[in-house]
Amino acid sequence: MATVNIPICTNDMKRPLKAATNLKHTVLPKTLKFEVYLQVDKELQEQIENDAVLAEKLFKKVSVEYKKTVTDLAAVATDIDREFGKELKPKGWVEKEWQKRAPEVFEDAEARMLTESRKLIKKWQQVRKDRKSYVIKSAVKVTIGSLSVATASLGTAIAIGGVATTGGAAVPGLVAAIYANVKAVIALDKVLRRLKRDVDEAEQELWKQLRYLLDAYADNTKGQVATKELAKAAVEQFFSVSMKSISNGENAMFDFKGKLDKVEINLSKMGIKLNKALTDQAALDKQIEDKIGKMLKQANYKSKKLPKLVASSKKLNTAVNDLLTDIPLAIRKVDGARVRHRTMYKPAMVNLKAKKPEWVQYGEAALKLGDLALGAGFTDFSALDSILVLVDSIGVEFDDVLAEKLL
Prior knowledge:
- The structure is a single chain.
- This protein is mainly alpha-helical.
- Helix content is about 70%, strand content about 10%.
- The longest helix is centred in the middle third of the chain and has 67 residues, at about 230-300.
- Mean pLDDT is about 80; it is low at about 150-170 and about 225-230.
């Protein structure tokens, strides 16, 4: 009797395999297909197709085995990826290792799926009291593709036993550390942009409340704002109708001071991150000079791309240093705002709450300052995005240098 194929597992495994892995140095195959068929007598095939319960049990069991196959294959890919990252491997090692180990996973999967299918069919026959022997084999079509080296992370191959003097990280780790620090500074810059706006709004609100209070005070004291001997009734009347505005002014002042503190804290964090980037870059430059240069020299090979890598590293160093010089300028801007708070806003509110007419002099002086908003002329750290691109390019250039010898 003729046999026919029943497809029990036909899947492109790339998507589930990608979800099950987090490869750092290698790239999954573009095509990764796994097709399993049961080869059975046509009579049996017709019976299976007419029995929905059996078909459901069959595909459910095969699904379990399929998930295990994905897990096993992900373990192989992850292990190869990890091994490649540990030390320099011969050219083509990743591809050959995948071609050797991946087929074993599929062979085991095929055997398990066939075994489970036969068990289910035999059990099904027993229930039906069907003692007839059927041919039940399996056929597999597999396209495992090629696990390959990710050019963008080829740099991990430089491990070669050589490590940086700061923490033992190889070149890719240092590039990643610099990238992470600059990324953190970008996040801090976003916070600062919002804080600058908040500080300016708080100061504007403070001016608004001072203007209102000065006008109300002048009305209630009949213009005698400069005299120290005022009618007690006039002063009390002013306070009785202006307590809410006094409270609003005080809140605006506290808000102004609090936002200034946050600006300075974030500027300090920026400085720490940028200095850490410079420290990591010093280690990176040493790695480039001592490890890569030495490796190429020992191989008697003059790299055409190494000078570009060195030039980019120097450019990065200059850019980060320039950014660091902007931070003291920004802090001086904050200091100027603090002077306004200390010498005018705070004395005005303190004297006002104490019902001392001297508060007027401080309030009027503050309103004569003009527009001294913190955001005006404040460093916007616009070079950060270009620095991030530069760090990224250094990683690529580093890979290009190694690729001259490894690919």
